Amino acid sequence: MLEYNLPRYLPSAEELPDSDETPVDNELQELIPGLLKAILLILWSERMDWLFAIDMGIYYHPDKPPIVPDGFLSLGVERFYDEELRPSYVLWDENVVPIFVLEVVSQNYRKEYTTKLAEYEALGVLYYVIYSSRRRRKPHLEVHKLVNGKYELQEGNPIWLPEIGLGIGCERGNYCGVTREWMYWYDEQGQRYLTPAEQVKQETQRAQQETQRAQQEAQRAQQEAQRAQQEAQRAQQEAQRAEVAEQRVQQLTEQLRALGIDPDNLG
After folding, report:
1. Cα torsion for 174, 176, 178, 184, to the nearest 10°?
2. In the beta sheet, which residues pair with residue 175?
3. Contact at 8 Å (CB) between 4 and 92?
4. Which pTM value belongs to this model?
C-alpha cells in the first residue's frame, strides 16, 4: 500500500499528536463535512466497515507532520476499535489509504488546488474533492479521480463514485437553519439522499398521514356502522308494519266469518 520505506519501529496513534493545533478559519469547513457524515451515519447505520473523519490528522510517516483534510472517508476499516475512538488516522496501523478526501476552500487559500492536490495524489487517495462557493467562473465543486497515478478532473454534478457506491454533488438546501449551497450524497440515479432533519420531517409527515388515514378509516367505519344500524331499524319497522297488517287481516277474516261469509271464497 505505502510504497516508501518506513522506520522499523513505529509509534501508535495514541503516541502521536491528535491535532495540528491549527483552528479552522471558516465554519463551513466543519459544517459541510459534518453534513456528509451525518447523512452517512443514517445511510450506513448497519455497516461497521467505514470511517468518515472530520479535521483528523492522517499520519503517513512518523517523522513528518500529518495531513489534516477537512474530511475524509475510508472503507474496509473498523468504524470503532475502542470506546475512546481514534485520536488520529495512522496509515501503518490502518493499512488502508482513505478513498475520499474533502477540502473546503476558505477565505484564506491553503493551496487546495496545488500542493494538497499533489500530496493526496502521491498518497494514493482515489477521490480528491475540493469545494469553494466563492468561485465565479469555475464550478464550485471539483472531483479529481486518480487514474494511472495522476488526478483527472471529473465532469458533472452530482458525480457518481462507483468504488464508494455513492454520488457526490452540491445544491441549495437548508442545514442547521442556514439556506445556501451544501454538499450532499446522491444515489446512482442522481437522487439526493435526505439530511437527518429532512428524514425526521419526512417520517413525521408520514406518521401524520398514517394517523389521518386511520382517523378517516375509523370515521368511515363509524358511518358504516350508523348506516347498518339505520338499516336494521328500518327493517325492524317494516317487520312491525307487516305484523300489524297481518293482525288486521286476521281480524277482518274473523269478522267476515262471524257474519257467515267465507273469506276464502270471496272471489
Report:
1. -40
2. 178
3. no
4. 0.74
